[in-house]
Amino acid sequence: MCDDEHTNKGAWTKEEDDRLISYVKQHGEGCWRSLPKSAGLLRCGKSCRLRWINYLRPDLKRGNFTREEDDVIINLHTLLGNKWSLIAARLPGRTDNEIKNYWNTHIKRKLIGRGIDPQNHKPVTTKPPAAAAINAPREENPKTSFPASMQNDGVPMMAAMVGGAFRVVITGGAEELSSSSSSSGLSEEKELLLVPQINLELSISPPV
DNA sequence: AAGATAGACAACCGCCTGTGT
DNA sequence: AACACAGGCGGTTGTCTATCT
Question: What is the spatial distance, in angstroms and rounded to an integer, between the CA atom of A205 and the C1' atom of B20?
Fold first, then answer.
């Protein structure tokens, strides 16, 4: 991409930031290819776009992720996998890059520490996962509907996330999405308990 | 105090997709 | 239908800082 020898790479300077901010404020986002020349920047368009989206946008929420945001990320990752942009779309003020970094540096480790595989969100065990977790008898912990192997400090993973009951119904067209939790026998109508106050409704419709 | 190591995050790279011609 | 281009995305790397030995 930015293979022009006259193109700057690496960390952005304050002056470059100022130029980019002032240009975007004046002309709006878009036309990233031609932006560097117009704005007097020795950067490629992609670099400018990335810098704006991930760092300079005024609506960005800087700072640590909250517990609620953690939970949303984990839940959405369960549903969507590494679709960082989709996850970011549900977290106002956060960028896909930020979430991806946060996942790789914090959440991944946290889940591994809890004995959860960060890729498939199933308990890491020597037994086959289906036998170890999904088919574990409910009576292991009558307080919850989760097998003990999915619990952390006596608090079930999902129950810890939910606080109050909040339902997401995933609807589909020809092919419905389902989640790993549906196989745990939570519900026949493919419901998930997720974090309150966030609309996580997802749907897939067949092409018209 | 100095070097080694690990963690955190900004930035880059290459590929994919959507759109216009 | 085929092609070119711009924008977007996810994976990966580079660099700075903090902590450990």
Answer: 26
Instruction: Determine what percent of chain A is predicted with pLDDT higher than 90.
Output: 2
Footprint of strand C on the protein (CB under 7 A): A 10-11, 30-34, 45-46, 49-50, 82-86, 96-97, 100-101, 104
CB A7 within 8 A of CB A42: yes
Model pTM greater than 0.70? no
Closest to A206 in 3D by CA, of A161, A167, A157, A173: A173
Average pLDDT over residues A6-23: 86
Token match 């590494």: residue? A82
Contact between A78 and A117 (Cβ < 8 Å): no
Kindly state which CATH superfamily the domain A67-193 is placed in. Answer: Homeodomain-like (1.10.10.60)
Domains in chain A: boundaries:
14-56, 67-193
State the pLDDT confidence band at A186, using cuts at 50, 70 and 90: very low
At position A151, the amino acid (one-letter code) is Q
Distance of A2 CA from B12 C1′ (whole Å): 9
Distance of A1 CA from B13 C1′ (whole Å): 7
- Domain A14-56 sits in CATH at 1.10.10
**Residue A71 contacts strand B, CB under 7 A:** no
Instruction: Indicate whether A53 pLDDT > 70.
Output: yes
The two domains A14-56 and A67-193 share their CATH topology (first three levels equal)? yes
